[in-house]
Amino acid sequence: MVARRMGSCWLLVAALLSASVGAAESGVVVRSVKGEFADVKENVLFAVQNRGLVLNYTSHIGAMLARTGKDIGRSRVIFRDAELLEFCSAAVSRGMMEADPHNIVFCPYSMAVYTLPGEPGTVYIGYRKPPATGTSRSAQALRAVGTLLDEIADEALK
User: Fold this and answer.
1) pLDDT in tens, 114-158
2) For 61-87, what is each residue's pLDDT tens digit?
3) DSSP string of the chain?
């Protein structure tokens, strides 16, 4: 369980770094909306649940960075709030892995919800869309994952 949590933390950090150095090339999508963190997070959760999906895990990235920063002598505040929400779709995931069992690396799906210290009232949603690679069947299945994530973000940001 601890390894999974740490893995999620590193995935969010990698995703956020990718967003700042080349989101288009990495498949990372970062969108923003004016609002409050708790409201936007709730909107993401509703959008996930509205598709019959269940939240598997919430990784409290912001709290982890604040806590561990003190332990390693780093005081820079990176996020005001930051959480990574993990979820999966049995149907979409199964289709993705039936197309290519190696696509297991793209599951579960995750969406980061976060705020930055110098940007009060702005909430970001970030997620990774898997590259449409492999056979045509695999590429189609991976595009379906990207579409699902886009639809969740669209609904959450309304």
Assistant:
1) 999 999 999 999 999 999 999 999 999 999 999 999 999 999 998
2) 999 999 999 899 999 999 999 999 999
3) -HHHHHHHHHHHHHHHHHHHHHHHHHTEEEEEEES-HHHHHHHHHHHHHTTT-EEEEEE-HHHHHHHHHHHTT------SEEEEEEEE-HHHHHHHHHH-GGGGGG-SEEEEEEE-TT-TTEEEEEEEPPP--SSHHHHHHHHHHHHHHHHHHHHHT-
